[in-house]
Amino acid sequence: MAIVTRLVKDRAVVIFSKSSCCMSHSIKTLICSFGANPTVYELDEHPDGQQIEKELKALGCKPCVPAVFMGQELVGGSNEIMSLHLKGKLVPMLIKERAIWL
């Protein structure tokens, strides 16, 4: 977990993604549409991508991308993010983490 912990430290929103994953693209687009500027790590382009993928799987991310962290806490993948959005809870979480200002 050392790499993932280091990469999410002191960042409001972090998305672990793969450049070829359509669900990762959708989640990045959704979060950015609110004005957030998440830190995005493309695992297929990152030198430690395979190790990060193993760490995400160990944290319970299945599939391992997209994986969204807010305030250094794992929020979840595309299902969890879309569910939060549909319930009206995603924007308040982004505000709480100071990823967006309204």
From TrEMBL:
Which cellular compartments is it found in? Cytoplasm
Q: Does the keyword Cytoplasm apply?
A: yes
Provide the primary localization.
Answer: cytoplasm
For the Glutaredoxin domain, which residue ranges apply?
13-75
Do you know which Gene3D superfamilies this protein is assigned to?
Glutaredoxin
- One Pfam family assigned to this protein is Glutaredoxin
Entry-linked PROSITE patterns: GLUTAREDOXIN_2 (PS51354)
Q: Which GO terms describe its cellular component?
A: cytoplasm
Q: Which UniProt keywords apply?
A: Cytoplasm, Redox-active center
Annotated InterPro entries:
GlrX-like_pln_2, Glutaredoxin, Glutaredoxin_subgr, Thioredoxin-like_sf
Q: Which PANTHER family match?
A: GLUTAREDOXIN
Q: Say which family it is in.
A: Belongs to the glutaredoxin family. CC-type subfamily.
What name has this protein been given in UniProt? Glutaredoxin domain-containing protein
Taxonomic lineage from the root: Eukaryota, Viridiplantae, Streptophyta, Embryophyta, Tracheophyta
